[in-house]
# Entry
Amino acid sequence: MLTSLLLVAHTALAGAPVGFTPGVEGQTGFGPPVADADGAWLALTRWDRAGLWSLDLGSHVLRPVSDARGAGFHPVWDSRLEGHVTGPSLERSLLFKAVYSEETGGRAPGQYAMEWRPDVPGVSLLGQGAHVGQPTRSGSLGSSMWTGPSAVRFTNEPAWRARLADIADVDLIDADPAGERVAWDDPAGVLHVRDLTTGVTRALDSAGRGSHPAWSPDGAMILHHTADGIVVVDAQSGSVVAVARGRDPAWVPDTHTVLFASVQTGDDVGPGAAPSPYVVLSSTLQALDADSGRTRTVLADPSVHARYPTPLGRTGAVAFVDTITGDLWRLTDSGRVRLLAASEVDAAAPPPPPSNARVEVDVPYMHQLWDTPDDFNGGWSCGPTSCMQTLAKWSVLPNADITCSWPSAHTSHWGWYIPNTYSFNGYTYDVWGVAAGGDCQGAHGFICREYGGAVWAYMTAFMQQHGVDSQQLSADFNNVVSEVNAGYPLYASVDVLGYGHIISVRGYVTQDGAPIHTMVVNDPYGNAGTGDWGNDDGEDIVYDWPGYNNGNLEIDVSALFSAHGTAPPDPDTGTAPVDTGTPPVDTGTVTPPADTGNPGTPDGDGSRAIPPAGQRVIVDGIGGCQTAPRGVGWVAVVAGLALVRRRRGR
# Structure
């Protein structure tokens, strides 16, 4: 059943209709909670991982730990037995990374490794520097571990040891329960495992490209969160043993069971089935048995949208967040009880984001809602808008000025091209495509023809037809650095707050002259890190690369796309750009053809050939609309898993 579900073709769309109220589900209240070993305490954070609180589940006392950005990204409880006169007792502390953007409490701006203990006032400083990694657990009652530049340190050791000497910048590493092996993702998202004693390292390519690796409680398996969903691999052989479509995975103690959220949003079903792609239609809690590959439903209630399932130790209870309200809940066999309301942390305003040096190229900004024609619903047009922004970088198309009314009256140079028929360079963009407010032509029609969302092959073909060489690149941060250093922007298929999206990439952030894993982007839907995504503030903003915490909103990246154009001549030379195509002509309001059941009309005579639908595999709503490269990879994972099960006699 699971395999058949994974092969169902669907797509990721992005955007929202004109008149949409800013703010999307998931931008309120609590983010992922983290439980300590015995399930008696929770570490809590905001939806954007800014700030950190502790909650004693016995007394229900909520205490602030840190107001730093990124403090809630990946905190870890360090529990250990301590000897006392009355016998051993469990001592706990909370380890976290803090990113200070300005001088705070006598600390200069930078990254810090911190520790908080319930019985000690304030927080303790464990380390600091231009780059500090995240803590990780090692063993149910063992020592926690920190990562740093090329080194790791267990908290019971006096100094750092260069056991990762060939890894310059890894933020998120997970240690196995015995503290003998570590797992991490390289900049391209490939899972690696290293034996800390022998130094032998293996790349587990079968796990796909992802982030946030997590060892099973017995160290036999590794959970890998990919843009396609959840993959569990055998830690020794590297073979895939289980897969699932879902988010927010977490191991259940002493088992091979993974809890996760199965979320259906407007971007999964397409225009017409939901008022906006940024609407969660349902979110249920599921359990994946990694031994059998079977899933079962843990909680399915349409009145709540359950996310971030967190087992409360070995108690059998689970904490989760309802993203409708942002409230925190506890689920037991007897039912669910609300633990805290979202207002407990919503009232705390996050500090300003870090200010670091940037390396970037200029890319003019376009908003998919507010810079497209008033009578066009650009809610599903993130792909065409991102492509058009990148074309504008190279001054490819002549201005086709229109007046847009929102958020105030202004002129848009290129928004007219998104829904309207035009000709350029021998191509006529008259293909009908699915849009939020009805079928349209133009850039949106060409790129979003059958599904309403941007298909990767159509985006690169569109760019190439406009004279900008565009190729799909792997989701490797090194590609961002190399392309920007060469003076080229990119565009990317990403996942922002759990919604598939396309953005323009214009640069990266540096610290002490070296790149860190933070992108500078133009988000055509606004800035998702502010709490009101859908705003008009998406120009020249920053998002952190998956698996990294530099104090900004972390997003997932499915693929990057190059955009090699040629800068127009300097106006001072007196040489004007030559338009070799047909100027845009407003043909007026065009009535779409009757719905015959076909998703779109054939390409025009001048259009570059696109693979027929039967040659494309479109699966998954995470990270943008998918074409064969990613879809085929996921199908291969499923096929490989089926082979493993046959060999095991399952």
